Amino acid sequence: MPEPLIKQETHSGIRTLTIQRPEALNALNLDVIQELSAAVQEAQSDSDVRVIILTGSGEKAFVAGADIKEFAEFDSEKGRNLADHGQELLFNRLERSSKPVIAAINGFALGGGLELALACHIRIASDTARMGLPEVSLGVIPGYGGTQRLPQIVGKGKALEMILTARMIGSEEALSCGLVNQVVSSDGLLEAAQKMASQIMKNAPTALSTAIQAVLAGYEDGVNGFQAEIECFGASFDTADFREGTQAFLNKRKPEFSGK
Ligand code: DAK
Questions:
Q1: Residue 53 C-alpha to ligand 1 middle, in angstroms?
Q2: Is this model's pTM higher than 0.90 or not?
Q3: Which listed CATH number (2.60.40.2310, 3.20.20.370, 3.90.226.10, 3.40.50.720) goes with 6-201?
Q4: pLDDT, tens only, 88-113
Q5: How close is the Cα of 212 to the center of ligand 1, in Å?
């Protein structure tokens, strides 16, 4: 049996997915995209999983981009179809995950690798991480949502600077422009991601997923985010988690959320 491309580990409600192609700096080929998509789907339907952490194997790279050897042969039709398919299969699925997803960026996050991290809800980087969208240096543009999600996160000006210069930035610059939420030392990266996951997990699962949905609604074409928030807010009152959260507060005890 060949080694799986995605290692899956679960501890205390946290599912860690590790991309394992260290010989190619965890570059995203179609097999990785498919396996990772299946692993994300599995984590969604596993009731033991509350938060997902995504990282890369080895100390050098989170993901050094789409696999250049693989996409070097593509023509315009294949490129367009794969962008469409890949975005739906993995990147949109990650972003729309009802369970919070944290990217633990342990090294290079370039091109499709940075786009993968951008599709996660929270990014924590090691102080050695290097991030960028170098696609234009290869004669293409970001094709897994980078031209859309990067400006949403860092603003149009910084995003255009990063995309047009193809320059890699370090963790501190990434922190200062809001690309990452936190920077920690390499050896403390997973621990920091787990700590953030544990803090998130104290909260009601139904409220977490509804909050993600409401935030994303504001970025959807033709959707009024404020109206979506009103709907999501109203729906929260019908959950067992809402009843448990408020009762626990009133009875001065810790809530035990069922996720229902
Ligand atoms: N693809 C394939 N192999 C890669 C790779 C990549 N993106 N990045 C690194 N590798 C491989 C190297 O070829 C090398 O393999 P061997 O030669 O040992 O067999 C091994 O990983 C170690 O890399 P280096 O020897 O280069 O390591 P260094 O420390 O010297 O340099 C580096 C590290 C990250 C600076 C360098 O490896 C590098 O510049 N890598 C490429 C970065 C890059 O340009 N990434 C691609 C960005 S473009 C699409 C949608 C989206 C995209 C494409 C298509 N469709 C929908 C169709 C996205 C495109 C991109 O991501």
A1: 23
A2: yes
A3: 3.90.226.10
A4: 999 999 999 999 999 999 999 999 99
A5: 32
